[in-house]
Amino acid sequence: LTPKPTIRHCDHNMKISVSFLVLIVSAVLLAQCATAYQATYVRKVQVRNDNRADFSLSTFNGNIKWAHVSNKLAARQSLSEITIEETITAPTEAELNDVETGFTGTNTDGNGNINVQATYGGSASSASFATRLSSALFLGCTALLVLLFPSLSFVRTRQALLFAVLVVALASAYHPHRTLVFAQSGDYRVDYVVYAPSIEFDSVSLHTDRGTLTVDRLHANQITLSVDVGSIAGTQLALSQRSNSRLSARIADSGDITLDRVSMDQPNQSGEIDLETDGGDIYLHLSDGGFSGSYDVQVTGTGSAQVNGMLVDDAEANGRLTGFLNSASGEHSLQVNVNNGVADVLQAASPTHPASVPSPGTAPPATPPPSPPPSPSPSPSPSPPDTTPIGDNTYSESDFHYRLTQSTGSRTLWTRPPTHRVLRSDRAPENTRSGLHLSAAKNEFEAVQLLIGPNNGNTITVTVTPFSNLGTGATVEMSQLSYTSNIAERRTILQNSASVQLSSNEPTPIWITFYVPANAPSGMHSTTVTVDGISIPIQLEVFDFALSAEIHFHTQLNMGGQGRNADAKQMLYNHRMTPKAPFAPTGFNPEMTWFPSSCTEFDDQPDRSQEESIQKSSRRYLLGEGWNGAGFPTAMLLQFPDNSHPRPSTFCDQSLGSDPRGTTAYNNAYIEYLTALRDYLDENGMLEQTYYYVMNEPQNDEDETLAAYFCQLYKDRVPGLRLAVSEEPKPNIYNNPTYGPCGYDIWIAHIRQWDIDYSNARIQAGEEVWWYSLPQDIDPYPNPTVVTNQGMHARIWGWISWTQRITGYAYYDWGVLFHDNIPDARAELFREGMEDYEYLYIANGNRYPEVGVSRPVDATAFSVGQSLTSWTQNAEALMVARHELGRYIEGSRSTAPVMEASCSGRARGDYFVNFQDPSGQPSGTVTVDGKTYMKIGWAAFNEDNGYGWSGYAVNNPAQARYGYDDTNGYSETEKSYLYDDYGKTNSFEFCLDNGQYRVTASVGRPSRGYSDLSFLSVEGTVMVNNEPTTNSDPLIKRTVTVQLNDCCLTFVMGPAEGGPDAYTFMEYLDIEAI
User: Could you tell me which residue, 965 or 327, shows the higher pLDDT?
Assistant: First the structure.
């Protein structure tokens, strides 16, 4: 019988429904299959009851970054997979005994959480993801889809074939070998895998086929790192000792291996370190005090190798190491095979060890791989490099601060480094030395400070004889400094053989500044300065290298009218400073370059004079044509009209409208101008040096969203034009929820709002981060614009910018450091800091420092300036480090120096400090566990006391507060505390002789917990990192080991850099010599 049509119709509808269902299921399966090959996958994650874990990681392409922030992680022990979800809470350490599953996170934020961010094919994602399918499953489901769809009887053959071809094509697109071939970078990064020491791994195996493998702060018994094509960089790798521990790093190709601060858990461990690369360079640094056992270190197949700064010579059949590994006791077996060369076995026999320092190279600047931005949750700053002093310096501090032997009964002559700005009350020391001494590179300005008296108030004559053979272009300038607010500041240029009026109640400072030309012969040069008939020898040591004519540290300094003429620009260039717009007075503003042509043609004013023409002045001052061959490194093209209005209200007869985003007609007109400007700069080779200053200090979410809008608008429609914004990097701008990801080329961050994690992420994305300061920024922050600050406030910028990877500085009224176009003392010292930066740049192989990469010269920089709030104030110790850095660059010493100050305060020993109201509770002698505590309150730092505070709360009783919680179960040192009631940053210094110390600190108050995020660091090492306290656990106690080199332990208390104001309750310190 013939079926009824209605039944045939229903059957047809059913087939169509099944068809669509199969299509949907197929699409979902195919997407999952594709995800399996796109996603980086993690094999085998296990955490057992002993709180140790095994895991291995690999990736086909793309980037993955692990950071200990806020997302939740859980692992299923029975499956070879790992699932990252924001909604799953990781087990706490206490729960591990009862739970079969575990996590690889740490307790750095108090909750045992870990954050995972991954990049697939170049696009960043912080959403949850899972790797669910192996390659076999992927191929299997692909085959299933190909076979399943054509098997449906209602599908036409042509449709089946078309679908099969589509599936095969998509499957091929996700084939791992093709994916690897088309990977842009293939970089695979693992940062901060383990930060808290409570998590210890049995073994860790990390591999990537291609790219850079970066590992930071990893703690395991067995560590295996391998890369087929690329490089390996590791920092703070700790080897535990449960069986023979082993660290292996191998590169199949010719990439470099850099392992910094490798240490051991326990004394007298044994094991092996095996490093191998086919022709690349190897650098290994074993941490001081961390290796007291016997380790077999093998380094094979390298182009060159260094172990703790000792170069293994690969040019000889038998390379030889000289020096000592560290100061710990015990023998150290060290076998180094470099092109089959074998080094001698060494024994530790020296109180100090060489720092991590390869010889300076000449490699081009490296471009760091892009990295996704971090979570907004705070994370610890990178640990400092090892800064153990070297001990082979040719100078000491007393060589820079002494009474001249040429002094007479009526004329006291003495010297201090210019970086120490002389006070009216300063007097000559008792130690003596003959003459004045200084050192400089070629193409460098260097000053020496001659101090006279106080004696009588006579008028004398001062005459300087120029060096006879310093080369063409050598100059000498003499200036006398007068006092402002009791500190030497304003410079008056003196003619040679000038008359100088002395004082009977204050020293008379004379600066003698020499310019050493690029053609100067290296070595010692001699001349004299004659003071009132007394001949004083001057010895200048010229290093065998020259500073580049190119300026590598960027500045944006608003000089007003002082920086416009040709002489002023030459003066600024000589000081390695850049005015914000170094070309013609009008700059590239559209009023002069665009509007005259009725908004149709870019006018570079070719018929105007040299200083008035955009064409002529830009080529001269940016490209150096007809000037110095180098020009200024950067220049602002144009900027916002004012803080409230990023763009003018009208442009080329188009009205902006009420919305600051502008109308379509306005934006089209504005973009047309920016496009013509971009094309002009590109055609003339100035595009990479210039930038458009888009906005100033966005104040709220609306402003930040507007900044994100401008970024997207200009990047989309005027690609290549560099953009700047005066704001610290913020996710709401560079990853705005409305306008999506877009980063400014230059972020100019206020020093007190700057956040190191966001900053590092943007630098790794290829952007620059600069700093700016304000007059109200006070200690512990450096501020060159406050006239009463000591000279290190001006000079330190080059050093701390290097350690924090900052490449620029801006100030809105730099003219306060000049008068009549004459730079005063602070401007001169800022130049010294810029020249110091050039030293670091050359010592780093003529390249900028990189985020996440520790190189030998970093130890030098870090010993001088650890952070924005922890840096040396010792001018003499800085001069020793800077002189030795010059010797290192020229090759007269083999190891990079580390600054170590000479101390004259407390002897090395154990000291205990209780922070409390000195006249309050606890009263009487405070003794806990056999330790007697000093009772210290909010006293300002005093050199005679050798301790004290600097910062916002000092000398402000309304802000500097005390507390005492008489809570049962707590000691007297735990009950008392002090805190800043405004939640600001303050620093405490405790001075004592240099060496290694174990420091224990307690923060919190026993009566209750606080959600405020406490922060505490010592000598740049973070002890408490943005952590809250709870009612059940109201105190945070931490112990760290630090190396003191500058005679005063510096503690920074308060919110972390860039964090909101927050309470930190400071209880006590235990300082114990090791």
Answer: 965
